[in-house]
Design brief:
By secondary structure, this protein is mostly helical. The chain has helices at residues 29-45, 50-54, 59-69, 77-91, 101-114, 117-136, 164-173, 179-188, 192-196, 227-236, 249-263, 272-285, 288-295, 300-303, 312-323, 326-329, and strands at residues 2-6, 9-16, 19-26, 203-204, 209-212, 221-224, 379-380, 391-392. The chain has a three-stranded antiparallel sheet with strand order 1-2-3, covered by helices on one side.
Amino acid sequence: MGIYKRGDTYWIDFRADGRRVRESVGPIKRLAEEAYHKRMTEVLDGRFSIQRRKEPMPFAEMADLYWELHGKQTPSADVTCYQLKKLKAFFGDMPLQKITIPDVLRYLNGVKERASAATANRHHNTLRAIFNRAIEWEKLDGRNPAARVKQFRVENSRTQFLENADITRLLAACDAQIRPIVVVALLTGMRRGEIVNLRWEHIDPVNGVIHVLQTKSGEPREIPIAPKLKALFDTIGGRDSGKVFALATRVLNTRFSKALDLAGIKNFRFHDLRHTFASHFIMRTNDLPATQKLLGHKSTRMTQRYAHLSKGHLQVGIQKFDAGWSHIWTPETPPAPPQPASGKTAPAPATKGMETQEPGAAHSFGHNLVTNGDFQPFTSQSKNDSQNGPVVEKLSVKIWSGRRESNPHLNLGKVAFYH
């Protein structure tokens, strides 16, 4: 007993409850060793049951159990119910232990081809959660195949929003039941599920805020009530409790699609109303942090998709930045010397250790260190010429060639830059 190989597959062989048990693992020996040690630990702890392994739970049965104990309690219960129907139709009564990684990939690839990569990733999350609950509830004695599958890469670049004229046409095309819902989406940026589940007790007219409790991130947030939105709530007629909009999500989707057709708006979703709110808020306020807080984004990565619309504060910022360089890029011009009464031009003052500078001869940026002609920065005195005074060593102007050189006169081991 232990680990052996039959063909290309490794098997583990052990005893439990006085009976011999053999299981196939796969073509990787390391995984077989891990599985064998795990089974032996379960046998010693009394957690291994031969009877349970003889009767593996079908996927459809586990999906129903997941819905009953967990799925219907989630904020997006309608979406979860739809996903479970698709999953049950694909996997059916296949035992949980028999579902492999290729099976998971075949399902997810099919969803991606029919819908999108983002939709496939959401189905992946639900499938992974089902297997995790099966392991936690001791319905599956093995690994989660969905946990070992990487999600598809999604390019979240869709930021389609409506212009003012489009909004006017859309509101005119909406019927009396969905028009208030669309207005709430445009004035708050709330998600469809957040609006459908909005209750009157979540609206605080005294402080002028909406308390959004059931959010995608799981963290509640507050949204200030705009004056136009307050007028809408007053028109609807506030109550102490109950849902604000008694309309099913499916009915809302159908009527919203009809309104889009009447308004002549193509390639638009209800969720794009959230993008419309964020886009117009950014263009009017230029406040990305406030946008992030109103939308309930945990990180700035999602809010950055609207950054290209915030041009006002960037323009103001670059103007302030440019103003800070004024004293550097525009050196102060020294005052002109006074002219003599006779009209003759006064001679230019001599510069110590430097030739008279021609206009435009020196660099305008920084200090005027170099002029046309020679400069005399170093002096030395010879014993033989002590009576004649110091001997001046003239050095011709050099252009820096890019070589790193040390200045022998200063005896400093630093880079000398010649201009």
